[in-house]
Amino acid sequence: MTAYRGEIWLINLNPIKKSNEIGEIRPALILQNDELNSGNYPTTIILLLTTSLIDDAEPLRYRIQKREKLERDSDLLIANIRAIDNARFIEKLASLSSKELYYIKNLLDEVLM
């Protein structure tokens, strides 16, 4: 299994360790660069998605329209960055465009810098 930057994958976040962590099986965007993704690095940096939509929530959320195997519109949770073990990946659902990734990077910069 190799997940690449800009892909949305279904991942298994169970079991969770603390009550404020997001669990369940849910989609996530691969944020980590492809040099690490294609190597033998054991973890991957992701951003989680939710189908609990909140309009006009940028820079903390970015709306991703349903596409490919992503069956519902979802909000990307910009401030919920995680590194997960690669064994948690289940299935590739969709891919984002380079334009969308550029916009998300700018939202990350706004939140983190």
Helices and strands: which structural class?
alpha+beta
Widest beta sheet: strand line-up: 4-5-3-2-1-6
**DSSP summary, beta strand count:** 6
> What fraction of residues sit in β-strands?
35-45%
* Rg from alpha-carbon coordinates: 13 Å
What characterizes the major β-sheet?
Answer: 6 strands, antiparallel
Global shape: globular
- The residue fraction in helices comes out at 10-25%
Instruction: State the low-pLDDT regions, or none.
Output: none
Along the chain, the helix and strand elements come as EEHEEEEH
For the record, give the distance between the C-alpha atoms at the N and C termini, rounded to a whole number: 33 Å
Overall mean pLDDT: 93
The number of distinct helices, counting runs of at least 4 residues, comes to 2
How is this structure best described in words?
It is a single chain. This protein has 113 residues and is of the alpha+beta class. Helices cover 17% and strands 38% of the residues. The chain is built from 2 helices and 6 strands, in the order ββαββββα. The protein has helices at 34-37, 98-112; strands at residues 7-12, 25-30, 43-50, 61-64, 74-85, 89-95. A 6-stranded antiparallel beta sheet has the order 4-5-3-2-1-6.
